[in-house]
Automatic annotation (TrEMBL):
This is Carbohydrate kinase family protein. Residues 39-315 form the Carbohydrate kinase PfkB domain. It comes from Pantoea eucrina. The lineage of its organism: Bacteria, Pseudomonadati, Pseudomonadota, Gammaproteobacteria, Enterobacterales. InterPro entries: PfkB_dom, Ribokinase-like. GO terms for molecular function: kinase activity. PANTHER family: RIBOKINASE (PTHR10584:SF166), SUGAR KINASE (PTHR10584). It holds the Pfam family PfkB.
Amino acid sequence: MTARSGILAAGTLLVDHVQRITHWPDQGWLTEIVARERCSGGAVPNVLLTLARMQSGLPLAAAGITGEDADGDYLLQRLREEGVDCRGVTRTRAAATAMTQVMTAPDGQRTFFHARGASALLDVAHFRDLTTPHRIFHLGYLLLLDQLDRPDAQFGTRSARLLAQMQQRGYLTSLDLVSRAGDHRSLVLPALRWLDYLIINELEAAALTGIPLRHGAGLASPETFAAAGAWLLQQGVRQRVVIHAPEGAWGTERGGEACWQPAWRLNASDIVGSVGAGDAFCAGVLYASHEGFTLSATLQLAHTCACFNLRAANALDGIRPLPEMQRWMDHAICDTRAAGRTTSAENT
């Protein structure tokens, strides 16, 4: 039997309409848009196109739904231009392609106005006949996929059912969330027992575990991150839990390595935008996990992907081929400030 290879990413497909503004205005007041562009966005394009721009050499495939509209045409064109297999993408007239208006301030902070569109229709049935030779099945973003977030009598949620099915078909499974206020544990926890990799940020991890990972003075200690990671493993994640933040990332493996990796030091003047920085970090984790990197090397590469992402206003233009990013990483300096202190070095 031929060994599995590559990454199949499924879930949110959207177009980002990125606006760079002079400042964030008070309600009722005007701000100026100084630059704007359309670019692909969402978990599926951001992760896959990051891997493609890295020239990773991995076979890449997408699954999801777009509208039968210009934004949908644009997404498929972008993916196909980078060699991504799009046979798992469905087109529909029932809804427009998902869209986000992204407002990016001069300090790199961004605000999102999102229309879920066609991605909200994605359900287990769309994967019924989907069988590919890829090794990793990555799903994102839970909490924006309305049909997959619905309850399921047997598995708890439709997303848990989907992940179970994909594991049974021979994939390693991975999950990413979107950061949303409120208690969404009932929509996420059922999926964890069907995961090999969980890749989330500190806000999402705190919401799931009930363990505060950020406070008024900055970030919690690595020991607190360790407790959150251990709790998530106890819920059933089979291989790796990675919790990332601007200051650094905690990773833990079942029965193996656990470590805190500070973010790389980055000058504020180098930061153009942070759209998709979390997805770039995620792409780094997926590539390194696919290739069998140690956990510490995985986190270092993921931070590097995020740092290069920050050099552009959109999610992709900062990414460089993997050898170039690795050469940069060889000379990068960790942010020596410990967790528990604030830093703006990396916005993931």
